[in-house]
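User: I'm putting together notes for a lab meeting next week and I want to include a structural view of one of the chains we've been expressing. I don't have a solved structure, so I'd like a prediction I can at least talk through. The sequence is below, exactly as it appears in our construct file.
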Amino acid sequence: MDRQSASARSPRLALLAASLGFVIICLDVTVVNVALERIGKTLSVGSTGLEWVVNAYTLAFASLLLSAGALGDRLGARRVFVGGLALFTLASIACGLAPSASVLIATRVVQGIAAALCVPSSLSLLNTCFPDPTARAKAVSVWAGTAALALGAGPVVGGVLVDRFGWPSIFLINVPFGVVGIWLTLAHAPDSARNAARHIDLPGQALGVISLAALTFGVVESGRLGWESPSVMTGLAGFVVFSALFVMVERQQPHPMLPLLLFRIPAVNVTSVVGLLLNFGYYGLMFAMSLFFQTVQSYTPLEAGLAFLPMTAVVTVANLVSGALAARFGYRLPMVVGQALAATGFFLSFTMIGAGSSYLTITVPLLAIGVGVALAVPSINVALLTHIDPPYVGIASGVLNTARQIGGAIGVGVFGSLFVGTVSDKVSGLHTAAMIAGGGMVAGALIAIVVLKRAGASIDLRPSTLR
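Assistant: Thanks for the context. Below is the predicted structure for the 467-residue chain, given as structure tokens.
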């Protein structure tokens, strides 16, 4: 590309493109929930089919993040991001026009595949567009903030769209955002470096997808069937077996999909563990509190969505603050402080959330949790980008986002399995889950303090040393 066209690029518009792609991907995680009743009536599908309308997306998304990250490193982040966003847009149209539940579930799988292509490559785009660490930290906070806003606004947006325009509108709304995101990416995002020396690792790809699919299936189904279910146990056992095979194969491959030496970098391990713990608590809480508002406090689905708006607002602001803190003090401070604040919120929920608690009382721990998680999430992305060479940002981002997706799925499974029985049992189960999540936040903060080097420290990661 010539100098003039390169100089006409705007990193801010490239950030907007990456954020738009992330927004519609995250929106589809929560927006579908409020449309399930209408979908069930229109397509004549039962509860199991409706669960798979949600789970098909999660399963495909979580299973393919590693492979998609490696593909982005090989082919270039911009190319993979645009391809993923185009596929997501087309799949959204197919979802909105689906004539039956089976077609809708199939197109939701395609959406999940496309989402997996977009997420690691969107982070790689930011790494390329913002080489300055300070600017990159702020960009990552905006990227994460828009995603958090989409997740929190999903139930409200879904409720309004379903009431006014019918359930297909929750999918068709993605189309204009996808088109604009593709155009902005092509116009303003530079073509990132490609690691063409990395060959396609078909055995590693296959085993990675199978192991992650088995884990995601087991965890997702645990909420419906229970952890002792043969299907759930088979899924978890399959994850163990295929993960062991995956590690064995990757050790022998001359060009592995996932270079295992990446895990010698403390930032990779810390961000993955912290990301898993953050999503475990946050997604588990969002799931359980949505049920709490509706089944314990008799809110309508729309009222339950509106109940999360204060939390959504502070999460968006806290994400932006996190970027400023990371730019000035390094990534470790917001990571540790955020987890400490989230832990405080989880522990407060033990005493402040009950069947007869007022909305204002319930909001206090929710705000603490939301702000804490929002402070920590951008910092783990900044920490990862700081310590990874550009040719491996895609696969490293795939590792982090896979860990986060696994954490979220486990959180929903654990919180869901504990939130059962009578009203008293549900509240008690919510308290137990909150204490577990709070303990996880404390553990994550301690890991970040002890394992991570001083903020801003760099590690020499030469691609030639990776196998």
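A couple of points you could mention at the meeting. Confidence is low (pLDDT under 50) at residues 454-467. Residues 211 and 239 are 4 Å apart (CA to CA).

User: Perfect, that's what I needed.
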